[in-house]
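We now fix the convention by which a protein and its fold are recorded. The integers have meaning only within a learned vocabulary of local backbone shapes. A record is reproduced here so that you can trace the correspondence yourselves:
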Amino acid sequence: MDTKSDLLTRIRNAIMRNFKYVEAPYSKLSERILEILADEKFIDGYEILEDQSTKFNSFNIKLRYVNGRSAIESLKVISKPGLRKYVQYKDLKSLRGNTGIYIISTSKGVLADRKAKELKVGGELLCSVY
């Protein structure tokens, strides 16, 4: 199961239905992606819900809306389990005039494209958000 794709699909579907909150299963990769989305002001935040009966945690994600429109216009999965995409930091282009970001899995952790350029590291191109 691809947890990254599942997370992004749940967020995309919730935005299409104008939901304020969405739940998603917990994973460390998903948590790092949500941290980046919150830092970049694409979501208003998230919390980890602990389920004592099943021992499976989940996220409760608060989606961000500005003037009735979602802060996220598009979420696209780039690297898939069957076809991984890798990029060097020099090849990272700005997305939508710097209003969007790429999320990259690097040797320094999961980072937004700006931080990856700053640290001069490349890696697997996970997704784009604008």
About this structure: The mean pLDDT is 95. The longest strand covers residues 43-49. The beta strands are 21-25, 43-49, 58-63, 65-66, 69-70, 75-77, 86-87, 101-106, 109-112, 123-129. The chain has three helices and ten strands.
